[in-house]
Amino acid sequence: MADIDDPKDHLLSIEDISKQIEVLLHASEAPLTTNHLKKHLSLTTNKLEQALELLKQRLNLGVLSLHHTASGYRLQIADSHSALIQSVFPQRQERLSQALLETLSVIAYKQPVTRSDIEHVRGVTLSSNILRQLFDKGWIEENGYKETLGRPALLHTTSQFLDAFGLSHLDELPPMPEIDSIRASS
């Protein structure tokens, strides 16, 4: 059901509302959800969408961008400036091992999976250290058990995984390449 305009909404212009949202996003340590913004700014869905669109347009003229992730909206430096950041602050660049990325990919694309499923896809024994790193980052979680011998835990990605990779949904993952095309390029 569509929101009915609240008379309070008309007191502030969409420009003013977009600036308030920008202030809150700068001050927040975590992404802000639409519900959070609507509640604290007393906005209808329609007004919020208009203000977010205006904020996005205004930010596109500068160095920041409005980004929507699984946890909500956040401000981040525009992708066009990533080379500069990496050259000046190389320590910010986190190196993820090939094994960790392969494991994370299997979980993201095939979830829910068990440790045994991951080992089968990768063709090697999975190091407990790799899983521990993914759990420590908050990128994966155990959610249920497979109804089979030993009842192994089922692994899933989390909203923190989506946030870390700038995604709002798993549907935004790039398509999985065909194995034959990978082998042909090797």
Structure, explained:
- By secondary structure, this protein is an alpha+beta fold.
- Helix content is 47%, strand content 12%.
- It has 9 helices and 4 strands.
- The protein has helices at 14-27, 34-41, 45-59, 82-88, 98-110, 115-122, 128-137, 159-164, 179-185; strands spanning 64-69, 72-77, 140-145, 153-157.
- The strands form 2 sheets. The chain has a two-stranded antiparallel ribbon. The protein has a two-stranded antiparallel ribbon with strand order 3-4.
- α1 packs across α3 (45-59) and α5 (98-110) packs across α7.
- The protein is elongated and about 65 Å long.
Mean of all residue-level pLDDT scores? 86
Distance between the termini: 53 Å
**Subunit arrangement of the protein:** single chain
Helix content: 40-55%
Compute the gyration radius: what is it?
A: 21 Å
